[in-house]
Write a structure and sequence with these properties.
mainly alpha; globular
Length: about 110
């Protein structure tokens, strides 16, 4: 499984959003900006884990998903708010992507001889 750096960085941003922003309307601009940038990522060898992110967001920040659906004028944001997936499966998929990141860091570290 090959994962690009931009996707990994975006997943890190998503984790920070979950930790540092409350589940309230004031967080909506940050989340919508993140989702717009996330959807721009090009992944040639795999699909974006969009359903996984939305499942995690729905579970951990349900009010934000509600606001996405009911208060965003953007059809894309409304469509994203309707995506559903099992929360545990979503977590496993994101963890797999994170493990890949750790493995590539170790390989790069070892290949550079440090």
């Amino acid at each position: 499984m090959e994962t690009n750096l931009e996707l990994i960085q975006s997943l890190d941003r998503f984790r920070r959003i979950l930790v540092f922003y409350d589940d309230c309307a004031e967080s909506l601009p940050v989340v919508t900006k993140f989702l717009r940038s996330f959807l721009q990522i090009k992944t040639p060898n795999s699909s974006l884990p969009t359903m996984e992110l939305m499942a995690i967001l729905r579970h951990e920040k349900p009010n934000i998903v509600y606001y996405l659906r009911h208060y965003c004028a953007d059809d894309t944001m409304r469509m994203l708010s309707l995506l559903k997936m099992d929360y545990k499966k979503a977590q496993r998929r994101i963890e797999q992507l994170s493990q890949y990141r750790s493995i590539t860091r170790v390989k790069r570290f070892n290949s550079e001889g440090f």
